[in-house]
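Schema walk-through. Below, the input block comes first and the output block second. Nothing else is stored per chain. Lengths vary across the set, and this one has 287 residues.
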Amino acid sequence: MQSVFGTVFLIMMIAAAALLAVGIIDGNRFVTVREEFELSGLSKECRLVLISDLHNKVYGNRNDRVIRAIQKIDPDFIMLAGDLVTSQVNEDMTPGIELINALGQNYRIYYGLGNHESKMQKDRERFGDKFDRLMQAVSGRNVRVLQNESVDLPEYNIRVTGLDLDLEYFAHFRIREMKDSYLQETLPGYDGSKCNILIAHNPDYFEDYARWGAQLVLSGHVHGGIMRLPFLGGVIAPSYKIFPKYDGGVFRTGRSVMLLGRGLGSHTLPFRFFNPAELYEVVLKPV
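--- output ---
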């Protein structure tokens, strides 16, 4: 009997060690994923890179691995779907700032805020001027922060809007229902003559974004569910929701499509299980 228990214990220890190894390996690598979408209103084909949830992660020397991957794609512009850094009082924001500044030398970047940036902005008693320092540090000529603002890209007939979602919509354990008029009151007016791209960090409100009029939604936040299981997908969201409906990849409703990035980094626990980080190459084509 003791030998049986010993064998079972050994197997469990080997399995735990293997799982830990997967978590460490997947937590320190990223893959490039390519997606194509046909969008109404788009005047000509273009290529973008989606970055989400870097959380100050560094790949290589000062993120040179990420930079080289983006240079290989050679996008027309870059979309940043929030959480460049993590809302920790003593965290050094240098890695995220350095990456944006390096990329901003050659590419236009449109930066929509995530909940971690919003926390720093709204809780100034705790974070002081940290949000202001972040915004000042990344504000180069090619970087546009979209905080409930829109910018037009006339060469493609695109309007890019960045949603700074109120923190009440990042509730733990549940999804708070969005007020019917919230997006209309928070965002600039929707332009039906253009191809509307919405950078919205929290994917839980995809149906609301679609009703607002977004043809393409770019999101993050969920980190792919931390661990991914066959047939079940992502296991847990950062908001502690189990098996979230939106965990990563492409989702559609009506004429709208959402690309949910699984993120380049993580926070709190630096592990990802069967869930490597992702950088997205996205090709947009006119209908």
